[in-house]
Amino acid sequence: NVNNIIRIGTMGSYTNLQLKDIVLVESSITNSNYGKFLCNYPNINIEASIDLNNIIEKTATELNIKINKGNIYSSDVFYEQNNNYKDKVSKYSVLGVEMESFALFTNAKLLGKRASTLLMVSDSFNFPDKLSSLEREQGLDNLIILALETSLKL
Prior knowledge:
Elements: E1 4-13, E2 22-30, H1 34-39, E3 45-47, H2 50-63, E4 68-74, H3 85-92, E5 94-98, H4 101-111, E6 114-124, H5 133-139, H6 141-151
Parallel strand pairs: 1-6, 2-4, 4-5
Antiparallel strand pairs: 1-5, 2-3, 2-6
């Protein structure tokens, strides 16, 4: 009986996003066959719920939480061997990589639900710094607050 799903998590940045920046995912592009095997979904990209994203964006403005919006690359493997991430940025306009959004959006589409993803940058492919486990854990607070405050409006 869940109608709205907001995933929170972490991502690796392929662009100039900085550690702890927040991304509201508009569309997920994948290298996976998940959609094909689950429900014959033929595409490698799928959109988040525009309605749900609009509510999240409005809530973020009200809470003065800065978000970046864009596409994400959902991979079966976070650190692919021979990953030419710059090609993915150029070809798909993705901000970075994570592993769950494509499957989440596909499941939501199949079941007639609304789904969105909020991500915090924990790693970067452009600079060597990474968040520690503790920093990742504590850094998710704004995402949790944003998701909970949004859910109160649904």
